[in-house]
């Protein structure tokens, strides 16, 4: 029999690995900021691009995946009940395989045999074992996801005619999105990178590989965002003592995110040859369709915030609900600040995706600023907010006032560090400063000098923001260790799930998975068939793999 | 499915702005010709040095406009310094002999990827004289931060 204890242990393993990755990745981030500012030089055995590869992979891919899996596993347990034996075996083996992949890939990075950055664009050619590690990682995630998806459908079968629990529904959309997305990266890793690096083929089609990569790379950001929204929908209303405004709209928004997150990857390739303008523009239009579920999410979340219980006085004023919110509770505070960061984050995203404006910012530090105030803050800060109650829930301890105070301090430091660092990165990017570039003054060219000298945005300021962020990570680790090992024991800590306001019966099409998966597949085919056919038809000469570091 | 009245207003407002926004993008793109860089010409990375026009990279003044051919390779451009005229459209054609690079002229809208196997292109008219830094902003290897060239624009 698989009990709650089993899933709690597995969830804890994922959380531990997530925070371990954050600690390591954050350290590298600190070093990057200092190197670019010219404040330090790395020892000869460590290269800038080696740590940058590790930073990107650890923070964007590995820590997020571990955290999301911990959250979904625990939440499914709280809403659907215990895993079956098969489901548990899938989740356990998924964890083992994906961790083996991470260790293999990390070893290659550490040895200096895979300084290819977290996008590993061909024809840069890393050690074949790096790609094998990536493949194992992806396969491990599929096994894990299969376990949880099976749990959801088994529950549905056992409860005919019932609405499935909201958390599990949203989690299932998230996992399906991940599986469909990772098919793209799996294809280029298995059929291009592994054969090339083992020497089985002499050359590869680079543009094809990039297109497959970005078919994965864009929905990847939704794989981070959807669990974040899940916390906003399913947990936050409970923390404020209110109700979710609309369960139905939450489900509908997630399904729209699912269908619109795939046919858009080419917006990352706007400055590349090999793809016609018309198709670039078409995918840009589809990109902006996510505005619709995003607006729905914003409405639903803010309407839920308004349901906070109020005093008579607060009820009389239009904005009285703001004062009624539990600002002193970090589990809420970290989440709402995360949401506020998403406003400039979303606007920056509109700039990036704007077809011709993209050339102004592509591969500049603007992009780096953008993902630090999207995945680095709305997502990370929400994950921290989740940790404040998830860790006590999993370890049978209490969330104490001490942890709350430290958490508030953590939130303040993180927000300040991120404001400074990402502001600087956005501004430097608009001045032309490149991303992914070690310290250089470009032979003292005056246009590069500006990046060091502008008083309100320069590399030193970026490093200062980075140092603050690093302090925030250290503090977060202290809180995590305290909550995991030292806080007083109690069995009371629960998974705080919100109820939804009654918004009528749920329309049947929302749980018609065949319908939604078909729409997803059709949109993918419409958006990608011609561009991929074109790339194959151009028959561009193949490129040899190269190790240039 | 029931939509709250405020939500209907909110979504209609949002979707209308979205349509206006996309219409503006489409207009400047297709009516005013502000399209991103691109191209579908192909060239073998290994024979870049042998095939025209990349066997003789550099600046070619065609009267009303200028053609520029640049080859990128780790960790430099060929040529690494060019002079260009003020106020004349310049068509840049770029490719790479090895891995992916970029051709990015600071303080202009020229910013494009060099993809092995393809020729990429973009057009720009310089309005200000001076020395422009060109750099590679796509990671290409250990010396990526050294990859640069210079454009001198003379009036
Ligand atoms: C201590 C906190 C952090 C610091 C100081 C930091 C600093 C930096 C810096 C300076 C860069 C730019 C490097 C360059 O382009 O040359 C960078 C890149 C990046 N950061 Fe962070 N960062 C931090 C946290 C995070 C977090 C929490 C995430 C995501 C969850 C993240 C994701 C990334 C990614 C994906 C890149 C791009 C890597 C690449 O271009 O290959 N960072 N970071
Ligand atoms: Cu994207
Ligand atoms: Cu480069």
Could you give the topology of this structure?
The complex is a heterodimer of chains A (549) and B (155).
Chain A: H1 4-36, H2 48-80, H3 85-110, H4 128-158, H5 166-197, H6 206-234, H7 236-239, H8 247-260, H9 277-288, H10 291-305, H11 312-316, H12 320-324, H13 330-353, H14 358-361, H15 365-372, H16 375-395, H17 401-430, H18 446-453, H19 459-486, H20 513-538
Chain B: H1 5-31, E1 58-61, E2 66-73, E3 76-78, E4 81-85, E5 89-96, E6 101-105, E7 111-114, E8 120-125, E9 130-135, E10 148-154
One copper (II) ion binds at residues 101, 136, 138-140, 144, 147 of chain B.
Offer a concise description of the structure.
The complex is a heterodimer of chains A (549) and B (155). Helix content of chain A is 71%, strand content 0%.
Could you explain the architecture of this structure?
Chain A: InterPro entries: Cyt_c_oxase-like_su1_dom (IPR023616), Cyt_c_oxase-like_su1_sf (IPR036927), Cyt_C_Oxase_1 (IPR000883), Cyt_c_Oxase_su1_BS (IPR023615). Chain A: Residues 1-507 form the Cytochrome oxidase subunit I profile domain. Chain A: This is Cytochrome c oxidase (B(O/a)3-type) chain I. Chain A: It is a multi-pass membrane protein. The complex is a heterodimer of chains A (549) and B (155). Chain A is mainly α and 549 residues long. Chain A has one domain: Up-down Bundle (Cytochrome C Oxidase, Chain A). Helices cover 71% and strands 0% of the residues of chain A. In chain A, helix 1 (4-36) packs parallel to helix 3 (85-110) and helix 4 (128-158) runs antiparallel to helix 5. The radius of gyration of chain A is 23 Å and the shape is globular. The model of chain A has no long low-confidence stretch (mean pLDDT 90). In chain B, the strands form two sheets. In chain B, strands 1, 2, 3, 5 and 8 form a five-stranded mixed beta sheet that branches. In chain B, a hairpin with a 2-residue loop joins strand 2 and strand 3 (76-78). Chain B has one helix at residues 5-31, and strands at residues 58-61, 66-73, 76-78, 81-85, 89-96, 101-105, 111-114, 120-125, 130-135, 148-154. Chain B is an alpha+beta fold and 155 residues long. The radius of gyration of chain B is 20 Å and the shape is elongated. The model of chain B has no long low-confidence stretch (mean pLDDT 87). The chains are: A mainly alpha (549), B alpha+beta (155). Chains A and B meet through helix 6, helix 8, helix 9, helix 10 and helix 14 of A and helix 1, strand 7, strand 8 and strand 9 of B. The structure holds protoporphyrin IX containing FE and copper (II) ion (2 copies). One copper (II) ion binds at residues 101, 136, 138-140, 144, 147 of chain B.
């Amino acid at each position: 029999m698989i009990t709650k204890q089993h899933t709690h242990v597995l969830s804890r393993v994922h959380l531990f690995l997530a925070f371990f990755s954050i600690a390591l990745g954050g350290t590298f981030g600190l070093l990057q900021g200092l190197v670019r500012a010219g404040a330090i030089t790395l020892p000869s055995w460590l290269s800038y691009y080696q740590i940058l590869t590790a930073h990107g992979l650890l923070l964007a891919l590995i820590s997020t995946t571990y955290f999301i899996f911990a959250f979904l596993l625990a939440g499914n347990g709280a809403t659907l009940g215990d895993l079956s034996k098969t489901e548990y075996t899938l989740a356990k083996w998924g964890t083992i395989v994906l961790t083996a992949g991470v260790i293999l890939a990390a070893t290659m990075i550490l040895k200096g045999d895979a300084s290819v950055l977290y996008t590993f664009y061909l024809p840069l050619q890393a050690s074949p074992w790096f790609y094998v590690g990536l493949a194992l990682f992806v396969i491990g995630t599929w096994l894990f996801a299969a376990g949880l998806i099976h749990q959801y459908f088994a529950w549905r079968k056992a409860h005919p005619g019932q609405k499935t629990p909201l958390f599990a529904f949203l989690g299932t959309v998230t996992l399906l999105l991940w599986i469909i997305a990772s098919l793209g990266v799996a294809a280029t890793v298995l059929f291009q990178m592994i054969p090339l690096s083992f020497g089985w083929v002499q050359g590869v089609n680079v543009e094809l590989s990039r297109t497959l990569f970005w078919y994965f790379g864009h929905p990847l950001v939704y794989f981070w965002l959807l669990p974040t929204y899940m916390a906003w929908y399913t947990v936050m209303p409970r923390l404020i003592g209110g109700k979710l405004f609309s369960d139905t709209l939450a489900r509908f928004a997630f399904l729209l995110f699912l269908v619109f997150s795939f046919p858009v990857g080419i917006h990352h390739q706007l400055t590349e040859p090999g793809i016609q303008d018309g198709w670039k523009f078409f995918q840009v239009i589809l990109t902006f369709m996510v505005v619709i579920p995003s607006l729905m999410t914003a409405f639903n979340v803010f309407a839920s915030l308004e349901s906070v219980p109020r005093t008579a006085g607060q009820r009389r004023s239009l904005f009285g609900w703001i004062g009624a919110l539990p600002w002193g509770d970090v589990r809420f505070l970290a989440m709402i600040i995360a949401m506020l960061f998403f406003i400039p984050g979303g606007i920056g995203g509109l700039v990036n995706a704007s077809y011709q404006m993209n050339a102004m910012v592509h591969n500049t530090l603007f992009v780096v600023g953008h993902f630090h105030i999207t995945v680095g803050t709305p997502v990370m800060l929400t994950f921290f907010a989740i940790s404040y109650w998830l860790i006590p829930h999993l370890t049978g301890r209490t969330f104490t006032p001490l942890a709350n105070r430290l958490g508030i301090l953590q939130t303040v430091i993180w927000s300040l560090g991120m404001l400074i660092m990402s502001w600087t990165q956005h501004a430097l990017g608009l001045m032309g400063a490149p991303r992914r570039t070690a310290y250089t003054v470009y032979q003292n060219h005056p246009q590069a000098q500006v990046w060091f000298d502008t008083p309100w945005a320069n590399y030193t300021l970026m490093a200062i923001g980075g140092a603050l962020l690093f302090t925030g990570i250290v503090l977060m680790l202290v809180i995590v260790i305290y909550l995991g090992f030292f806080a007083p024991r109690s069995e009371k800590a629960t998974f705080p799930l919100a109820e939804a306001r009654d918004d009528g019966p749920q329309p049947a099409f929302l749980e018609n998975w065949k319908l939604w998966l078909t729409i997803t597949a059709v949109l993918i085919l419409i958006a990608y068939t011609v561009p991929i056919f074109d790339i194959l038809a151009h028959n561009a000469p193949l490129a040899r793999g190269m190790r240039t570091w | 499915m029931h939509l709250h009245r405020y939500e209907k207003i909110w979504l209609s407002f949002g979707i209308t702005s979205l349509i206006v926004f996309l219409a503006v993008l489409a207009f400047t793109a297709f009516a005013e010709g502000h399209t991103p860089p691109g191209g579908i010409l192909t060239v073998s990375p290994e024979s870049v040095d042998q095939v025209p026009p990349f066997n003789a990279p550099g600046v070619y003044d065609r009267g009303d406009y200028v053609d520029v051919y640049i080859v990128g390779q780790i960790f430099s451009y060929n040529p690494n310094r060019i002079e260009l005229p003020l106020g004349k459209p310049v068509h840049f054609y770029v490719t790479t002999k090895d891995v992916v690079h970029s051709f990015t002229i600071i303080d202009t809208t020229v910013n494009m990827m060099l993809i092995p196997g393809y020729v990429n292109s973009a057009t720009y008219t310089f309005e200000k004289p001076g020395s422009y830094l060109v750099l590679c902003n796509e990671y290409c290897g250990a010396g990526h931060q050294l990859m640069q060239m210079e454009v001198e624009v003379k009036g």
